[in-house]
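Sync notes, pocket subgroup
Present: LS, DG
LS reminded everyone that the earlier model was apo-only. Rerun requested with zinc ion included. Inputs:
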Amino acid sequence: MDTLGIYRIDLKGLRSEVETRRFVADDDFFAVVGNTDIHAGNVVVDLTVRKAAGDTFLLTFVLRGTVTVTCDRCLEDMDCDIEAERELNVAFGDVYADEGDWVKVPADDGCLNVAWHVYEFIALELPLQRVHGDGECDPEMMEILGYHTAGAEEKSEAPTDPRWNELKKIIDNN
Ligand SMILES: [Zn+2]
């Protein structure tokens, strides 16, 4: 299984100054990248590779699609829209090194697999708080997890009728 093989970019073997690639980060992709909050997805990745001076490369990723994560409140699946544009500068060096905006690739290999970068760019787009919109959480799960619906809360917060207290006293005394 070589789900991530297609993400390997042969920079040394580029045939023109500008090349484009399209990947689809799908369920298989997220399963293979693994150890992840994202359990499914469909994100189209348009990559443009531009060869610049002195054996450096500018990689531009345009990402569009949706991924499925777990709702922090009801623990059911929820979809997050992904729309981002990210850049990565790549240069040839002695050893592989990831220095934030710059990635060094060993010159004798000349290839870079961008699968992990694609995953990181998508993960960066996820909101810190992943919850469904108001009223969109799974009602059954909410009940199991002990959340009260708005109606139940109102009821428990309503002041006790003082006549009920009086009646209770009478019953207790008997
Ligand atoms: Zn939810």
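DG: Residues 151-158 have pLDDT under 50 and may be disordered.
LS: The pocket of zinc ion is lined by residues 71, 73-74, 76, 78, 131-132, 137 (CB under 6 Å).
Action: DG to write up.
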